[in-house]
Design brief:
Elements (H helix, E strand, L loop, with lengths): L4 H11 L4 H10 L9 H17 L3 H16 L21 H13 L1
Helix pairs in contact: 1-3, 2-4, 3-4, 4-5
Length: about 110
């Protein structure tokens, strides 16, 4: 079933919420809707998640955002341009597991 406009808007708002707990919870839910996204919906979410991840200071939220991006990538919804903001993240500041996520994302894009 396709995602409705108000549902997509809620996801975008929550992915960019000021509260890192909300960003994490929303990023955790993004893959649950994978079969409902049109390519336009998914591109919008990939862009919002990529920007949020590039600005993220909360490690748990960042992990959820990167995982959501990996899931969207597995669905064929990511490309180098849509993940461009991830290149702003200093990999040396990340725990090893998140560096692996980043490498996987940047290699597949």
């Amino acid at each position: 079933m396709p995602l409705r406009a108000n549902q997509l808007m809620d996801l975008v708002r929550q992915v960019t919420d000021r509260d890192p707990r909300q960003r994490k919870l929303c990023a955790d839910r993004v893959p649950d809707w994978l079969g409902s996204y049109s390519s336009t919906d998914a591109k919008l979410l990939v862009g919002a998640l990529s920007i949020s991840a590039a600005c993220e200071s909360d490690i748990a939220a960042l992990e959820s955002q990167l995982n959501a991006l990996l899931e969207l990538g597995a669905g064929g919804f990511t490309d180098a341009e849509s993940l461009g903001h991830l290149r702003e993240i200093d990999l040396s500041t990340l725990p090893t597991g998140l560096r692996d996520y980043m490498n996987d994302l940047l290699e597949t894009a």
